[in-house]
Amino acid sequence: SCSYQRFVNCYRCFYKLQPQLTRSIYDQFVSQLQASIKEEIQEVKNEGNLEELFSSLDKIVEEAKDREEPAWRPSGSPEDDVRSSLAPFLLKHRSHLRRALRDRQQENSEVAEAVLVGRHRIAELQQLIQARQQAWQ
């Protein structure tokens, strides 16, 4: 898009008077434009830390090559997307809560049995106390 012929077409009158100078101006213009563009690109890279981001992107791409399953893509329905991403977490959490409930129920039944054994022992001791008290009287 920045060919010499287009440049000449824009400055036709000047080219007719001094073609050599026009070529020199064109060459300077192109070199300064290239230098300016390279400088701008470097500033953008430095400001956004793009080199590091690009290298991390390259690593992600390399890691993705080894995957066999396709990457996740949104379905177009936000509700379904949220549900599909939350469902595994919620199922895992539910499993954890059920396991914790089962453990607590088992502990509670063991404690309840210990309480019953203790009550039975107290009842036996009360009967023994009453029997000894009656024997003493």
TrEMBL record:
Main localization (coarse): nucleus
One GO cellular component, as annotated: nucleus
Organism classification: Eukaryota, Metazoa, Chordata, Craniata, Vertebrata
Keyword set includes Cell cycle: yes
Keywords for this protein: Cell cycle, Cell division, Centromere, Chromosome, Kinetochore, Mitosis, Nucleus
Subcellular location(s) of the protein: Chromosome, Centromere, Kinetochore; Nucleus
Protein name, UniProt field: PMF1 factor
Biological process according to GO: cell division; chromosome segregation
Any Pfam family matching the protein: Nnf1
